[in-house]
User: Which sequence fits this backbone?
């Protein structure tokens, strides 16, 4: 210890000396550091010297003043250094002159510069005499000895000047520091001596401490041995405790793990088949519906795998496939599903399957997501910051930039709202066409190669409900159908209903669901954590305290969660029990949505989004007031003061009966609200159809009707073999009897045909009644048949009364509001709009929505004058102004009306996107109104789907009755306009007649082809222009130019629309009757309605006259037979049920029953279809006949047989292909699908213009359904078979039974021309109606012509028998009768056999596009059409 103390004292002394040395060293170094810049400046100055400059200086005889002093200064510094410098004995320079300098120093300039550079080293080493620096001061102190001054004289001298000045300064600093250096050296010597002494002392101390450490170690060893014994005992006890804790913590897991091991071992053996099935599930089922997915999995994939795996393992082997395989079990787990649920994926089975496919597919997912549920989930699923989700659209300007960024960094890219095609630039990414370079992959985007990060994820999304993608997209992407299912939507709507009705339960349920999801995820994490810790534990596990405590904590949490899960499950069960009481509301709401969803098949404008439906659904609930239920309040005590108010009862829950009653009210409110929302956007012709579909679907859904009953109503079934009509043939049309016999398939109509035959008179009375829908049924049917049964009977026997009966039935089932619509209310419609919801007006002739919007705007202070209303009629160049207004009003508030958007079909997708963008932050007062004309064909699109889905649609058609049309037409003119005409009396009369004509022309359209054989776009513009012409002609002529006016109106204005010659004749006939001089004398404009006296009525007087005198609408007012309305109503009935069929029926049977019916029809057609005609045999028979007089008839027969062969061949081929396709022997093609669709709805395949099936193209024009036209084809084949057997022309040919009837008429002229020798181009035909009622009674060929039969007449009839009068002979053939009015309900009476006679053209006949017109008063020139559709046929 003593020695140690000495050493410590010595160490302190050394420390003091060391500190002194450090301080001296610091000050010395600081002084030297100050000198460094001087040296650097000096050396820098030397570096600026240029040998060339010095060389030039050397050549100077006499340098500028001061330059010689600089060079002299360098001589002084180099004295006794440079050997050439001559010095005196005292060391001073002998001669400082310029000449001496040049001679001594500048002889070798490089040597001169090197010596100058060495001066610094000399200063540091003390080798340069002090005298030099003393002598040089004489020169440095000169006033001009500065670099700046010298620079003005010589550049080289200036550099030398700077060097001299700085090196001298450096020297002086170094001289100053020298004493400090010596002091520092002495201090270092002292320090070294002290350190030596200290070392000696420390060595002694170290030796002593070594001895002490040895003794201490021996003591510690003894103590450690003692402690080790104590620690071993304690460790053993702790290990025992930890082992017991570990055993307790894992005791409950032991059984489960043991069971899981057994299960996993068993599953391992089945893994091959299960994984194969799961792979097939991912690869193939995505695009399909739930029903078809289950069918594929259970009935196709699983049996196929079992059969082939069994072959592989042998009969005694174990098939590696689970007994009830579930792909989801292989691909996902409850925790992952819970995570998806937390991200917003609906909880129904289809959505879970979709989530599984999205998460498991190696190909990029393409979501078919019209209801936007899938994209909502994806946005949340990929919302983590590290995924950096990028949402883009095709056509977006920064699409490629975002794609490249996502590819390089491994981000997620979502391309939303794609159409049916993709940009070619995306193909390499979609195809994963990666290029491998080293460890990295690259993909080419256009001309750029981008790194393909392994974490990159691409999602494709479309809102199209039924897209058709090319095979390459289907092969490279995984299509996944996120279309909501009925069951899934019902569950979602149930949650919404409960949230509206019982918010407390909804919130509790949501919390519990979220809690259960979190629990499931947490338990999975905890279980995985336990296994991970156990698997990665090192050494003796019973010694890992942290591990065991962690396991205990984990297990404790898991047990707590398990207990909470049980409690939550119990609570959820109670909530579910209460929620299920609202199931009926959700069920009806789901039905309403799918009705809305199906309407797009009727017209592309009838498309709605789930979001729009949800809004209307909520409104339906909100319209039902929520009554607070309370317990009965306690009675007031006796003697209570007067005026005392009884206490209110406590709130209580509704009883089951009260809740059921409220659900009925809510259901009715939702149904009514949704229907009114739909109906407001429907065309007038479709309103009854949609009401019928709704009523039928509700009836089937509520089990009021069966699908079979609905099928009988919709399909109007016909029996292929109805049998004999018996006495009914006297009055019942033959076309109705097969329908009556088909009804016997329903139990309640069993024996209907026999009953009708036995009660023929009673049924005839019912059939002939004006309103059979309310007339009494014969026999017991009046009591046994319901209102719906009556509908079925009317559909079969009196289709013209079905629409009236449908209204009554819908009224009875649903209520009057489903049949009778209130007038359009713009204010009520506006109340349903928002800044997020545009209003879409459908434009019709005579309808302008502008006043509706403007008048409402005035009420709300939104006008053009106020600057917050803008009406833009879209056309070329209006795109930018429209976009600017939309953006401005969306920001600041205002109404914009964009009219005639159908004219801007290429721009409206931009409008759609613009509205989506601006609506995100739109001003509350922003509204967008859009108008467009509907496309000419219902299945065509002229507006974007998403724009139509979310908009409030308004289709307010103008009424088609005469009164509405004439009132609206008259309103185009004013009192002042009439009074301003110089011939106002004539103008009033003619203008009113013109308005009447306009009303008739428009009104006839509702009668279909009987009104006009083609559709014409007559409009208000025609009326107003004709009025202008009328006024101009009246004022320009002394008398009314009737002929001129009729010609302009009928041939130019209205006639300009008309393309059919017979329609033009109709138009001109009206004008000839209505526009003549009798207008001033009470001309009868229509039955019971005469032209008013223009001298007594003014503008308003004509309106009053119409209101008081105009009779009710009827076909006769339009110049049509009453049967025209029956025909119109019949066609309307057919149209309604054809539309319902195209939508999938009214309440629909399952898919299986549809396939079964198709197969039955296919078997019937295949079995019934005859073989083709043997053309070789027929040609052999025909060859000798072609040159004979009857040769043209033989040619017709040959042509007809060939065309029939083409049709038979096509039918047989397509049926065989479809059979193979349904058996899986061929891939299903679009023509096969079209054929299935047509057969299932009893439509002749190919009738739909978009169908790829070719039956229609091979057949003849027809409007019959499949069964009727097939039967018609068999009759045609029968006629051809008889005709072609020996090629003898029948006495009477069934003319409509030919593919080309005109060819037979031409053959008649050819045969006559051959016989008479007349030129064929100077011949035509004329027709005579014979007295033969049945063609099979004819046994001769007429002279110069032929007999034909099978024609019908519409709008009139031909009398027979005595009614026809005495017959006349025309070249030996008896003919009789004239055209007479048709009988009521006899729409298409058959014509007797017709004698077609070939005659020579007379010079007085007028040639026209439709033949030779004779213009003879007693001959009616009647058009002949192949079908009742008329038009081009």
Assistant:
């Amino acid at each position: 210890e003593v020695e140690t103390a000495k050493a410590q004292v010595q160490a302190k002394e050394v420390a003091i000396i060391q500190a002194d040395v450090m301080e001296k060293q610091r000050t010395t170094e600081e002084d030297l550091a100050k000198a460094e810049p001087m040296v650097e400046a000096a050396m820098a100055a030397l570096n600026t010297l240029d040998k060339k400059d010095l060389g030039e200086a050397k050549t100077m005889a006499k340098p500028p003043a001061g330059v010689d002093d600089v060079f002299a200064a360098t001589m002084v510094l180099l004295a006794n250094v440079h050997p050439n410098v001559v010095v005196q004995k005292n060391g001073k320079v002998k001669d400082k002159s310029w000449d001496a300098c040049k001679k001594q120093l500048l002889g070798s300039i490089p040597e001169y510069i090197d010596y100058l550079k060495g001066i610094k080293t000399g200063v540091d080493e003390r080798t340069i005499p002090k005298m030099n620096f003393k002598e040089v001061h004489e020169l440095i102190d000169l006033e001009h000895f500065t670099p700046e001054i010298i620079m003005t004289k010589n550049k080289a001298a200036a550099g030398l000047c700077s060097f001299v000045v700085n090196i001298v300064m450096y020297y002086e600093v170094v001289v100053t520091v020298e004493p400090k250096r010596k002091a520092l050296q002495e201090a270092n010597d002292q320090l070294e001596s002290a350190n030596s002494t200290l070392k000696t002392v420390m060595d002694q101390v170290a030796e002593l401490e070594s001895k002490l450490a040895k003794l201490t170690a021996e003591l510690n060893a003894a103590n450690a041995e003692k402690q080790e014994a104590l620690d071993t005992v304690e460790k053993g006890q702790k290990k025992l405790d930890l082992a017991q804790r570990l055993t307790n913590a894992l005791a409950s897991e032991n059984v489960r793990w043991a069971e899981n091991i057994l299960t996993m071992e068993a599953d391992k053996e089945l893994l091959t088949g299960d994984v194969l099935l799961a792979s097939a599930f991912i690869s193939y089922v995505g695009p399909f519906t739930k029903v078809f997915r289950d069918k594929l999995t259970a009935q196709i994939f699983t049996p196929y795998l079992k059969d082939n795996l069994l072959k592989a393992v042998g009969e005694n082997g174990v098939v590696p496939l689970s007994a009830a395989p579930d792909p989801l079990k292989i691909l996902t787990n409850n925790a992952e599903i819970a995570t998806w649920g937390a991200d917003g994926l609906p909880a129904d089975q289809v959505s879970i399957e979709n989530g599984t496919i999205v998460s498991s597919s190696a190909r990029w997912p393409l979501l078919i997501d019209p209801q936007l549920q899938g994209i909502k989930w994806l946005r949340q699923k990929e919302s983590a910051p590290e995924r950096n989700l990028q949402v883009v659209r095709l056509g977006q300007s920064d699409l490629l930039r975002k794609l490249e960024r996502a590819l390089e960094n491994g981000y997620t890219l979502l391309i939303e709202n794609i159409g049916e095609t993709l940009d070619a630039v995306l193909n390499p990414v979609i195809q994963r066409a990666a290029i491998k370079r080293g460890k990295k992959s690259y993909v080419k985007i256009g001309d750029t190669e981008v790194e393909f990060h392994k974490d990159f994820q691409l999602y494709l999304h479309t809102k199209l409900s039924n897209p058709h993608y090319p095979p390459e997209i289907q092969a490279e992407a995984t299509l996944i159908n996120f279309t909501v299912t009925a069951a899934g939507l019902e569950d979602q709507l149930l949650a919404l209903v409960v949230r509206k009705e019982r918010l407390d339960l909804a919130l509790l349920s949501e919390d519990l669901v979220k809690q259960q999801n979190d629990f499931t995820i947490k338990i999975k994490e905890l279980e995985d954590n336990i296994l991970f810790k156990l698997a990665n534990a090192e050494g003796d596990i019973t010694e890992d305290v942290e591990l065991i405590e962690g396991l205990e904590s984990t297990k404790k949490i898991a047990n707590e969660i398990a207990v909470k899960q049980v409690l939550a499950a119990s609570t959820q069960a109670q909530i579910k029990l209460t929620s299920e009481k609202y199931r009926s509301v959700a069920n009806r709401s789901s039905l309403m949505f799918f009705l809305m969803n199906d309407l797009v098949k009727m017209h592309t404008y009838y498309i709605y989004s789930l979001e729009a439906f949800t809004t209307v659904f909520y409104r339906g609930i909100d319209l039902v007031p929520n009554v607070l239920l309370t317990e009965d309040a306690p009675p007031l005590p006796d003697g209570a003061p007067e005026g005392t108010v009884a206490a209110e009862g406590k709130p209580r829950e509704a009883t089951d009966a009260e809740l059921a009653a409220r659900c009925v009210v809510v259901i009715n409110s939702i149904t009514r609200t949704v229907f009114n929302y739909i109906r407001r956007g429907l065309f007038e012709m479709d309103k009854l159809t949609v009401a019928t579909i709704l009523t039928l679907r509700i009836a089937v859904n509520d089990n009021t009707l069966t699908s079979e009953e609905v099928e009988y109503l919709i399909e109007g079934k016909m029996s292929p073999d109805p049998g004999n009509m018996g006495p009914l043939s006297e009055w019942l049309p033959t076309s109705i009897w097969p329908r009556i016999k088909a009804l016997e398939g329903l139990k309640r109509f069993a024996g209907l045909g026999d009953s009708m035959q036995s009660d023929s008179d009673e049924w005839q009375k019912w059939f002939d009644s004006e309103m059979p829908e309310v007339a009494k049924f014969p026999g017991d049917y009046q009591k046994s048949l319901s209102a719906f049964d009556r509908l079925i009977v009317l559909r079969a026997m009196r289709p013209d009364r079905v629409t009236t009966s449908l209204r009554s039935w819908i009224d009875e089932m649903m209520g009057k509001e489903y049949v009778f619509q209130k007038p359009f209310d713009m204010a009520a419609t506006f109340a349903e709009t928002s800044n997020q919801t545009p209003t879409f007006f459908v434009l019709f002739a005579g309808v302008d929505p502008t006043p509706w919007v403007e008048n409402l705007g005035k009420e709300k202070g939104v006008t053009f004058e106020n600057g917050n209303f803008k009406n833009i009629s879209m056309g070329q160049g209006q795109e930018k102004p429209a976009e600017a207004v939309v953006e401005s009003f969306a920001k600041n508030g205002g109404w914009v009306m964009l009219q005639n958007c159908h004219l801007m079909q290429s721009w409206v997708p931009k409008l759609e996107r613009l509205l989506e963008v601006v609506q995100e932050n739109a001003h509350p007062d922003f509204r967008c109104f859009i108008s467009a004309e509907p496309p000419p064909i219902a299945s065509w699109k002229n507006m974007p789907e998403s724009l139509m889905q979310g908009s409030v649609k308004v289709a307010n058609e103008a009424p088609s009755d005469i009164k509405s049309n004439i009132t609206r037409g008259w309103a185009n003119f004013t009192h002042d306009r009439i009074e301003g005409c110089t011939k106002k009396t004539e103008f009033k009369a003619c203008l009113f007649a013109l308005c009447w004509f306009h009303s008739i022309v428009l009104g006839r359209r509702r009668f279909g082809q009987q009104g006009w054989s083609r559709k014409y776009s007559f409009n208000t513009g025609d009326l107003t222009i004709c009025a202008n012409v009328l006024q101009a002609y009246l004022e320009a002529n002394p008398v009314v130019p009737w002929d001129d006016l009729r010609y302009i109106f009928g041939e130019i204005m209205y006639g300009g629309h008309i393309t059919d010659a017979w329609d033009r004749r109709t138009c001109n006939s009206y004008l000839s009757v209505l526009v003549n001089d009798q207008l001033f004398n009470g001309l009868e404009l229509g039955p019971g309605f005469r032209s008013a006296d223009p001298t007594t009525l003014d503008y308003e007087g004509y309106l009053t006259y119409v209101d008081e005198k105009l009779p009710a609408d009827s076909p006769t007012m339009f110049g049509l037979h009453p049967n025209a309305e029956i025909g119109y109503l019949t066609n309307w009935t057919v149209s309604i049920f054809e539309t319902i069929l195209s939508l999938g029926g009214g309440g629909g049977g399952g898919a299986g029953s549809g396939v079964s019916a198709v197969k039955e029809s296919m078997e019937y057609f295949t079995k019934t279809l005859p073989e083709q005609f043997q053309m070789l045999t027929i040609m052999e028979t025909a060859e000798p006949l072609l040159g004979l007089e009857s040769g043209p008839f033989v040619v017709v027969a040959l042509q007809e047989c060939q065309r029939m062969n083409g049709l038979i061949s096509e039918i047989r081929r397509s049926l065989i292909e479809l059979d193979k396709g349904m058996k899986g022997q061929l891939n299903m093609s679009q023509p096969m699908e079209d054929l299935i669709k047509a057969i299932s709805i009893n439509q002749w395949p190919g009738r739909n213009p978009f169908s790829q099936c070719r039956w229609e193209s091979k057949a003849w024009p027809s409007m019959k359904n499949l069964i009727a036209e097939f039967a018609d084809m068999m009759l045609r084949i029968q006629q051809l078979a008889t005709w072609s057997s020996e090629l003898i022309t029948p006495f009477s040919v069934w003319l409509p039974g030919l593919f080309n009837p005109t060819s037979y008429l031409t053959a008649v002229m050819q045969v006559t021309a051959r016989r008479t020798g007349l030129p064929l181009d100077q011949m035509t035909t004329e027709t005579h109606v014979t007295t033969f009622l049945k063609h099979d009674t004819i046994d001769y060929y007429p002279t110069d012509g032929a007999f034909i039969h099978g024609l019908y007449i519409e709008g009139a009839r031909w009398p027979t028998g005595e009614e026809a009068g005495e017959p006349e002979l025309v070249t030996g053939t008896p003919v009789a009768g004239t055209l007479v009015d048709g009988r009521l309900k006899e729409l298409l009476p058959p014509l007797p056999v017709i004698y077609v006679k070939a005659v020579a053209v007379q010079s007085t006949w007028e040639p026209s596009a439709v033949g030779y017109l004779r213009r003879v008063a007693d001959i009616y020139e009647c058009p002949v059409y192949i079908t009742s559709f008329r038009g081009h046929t």
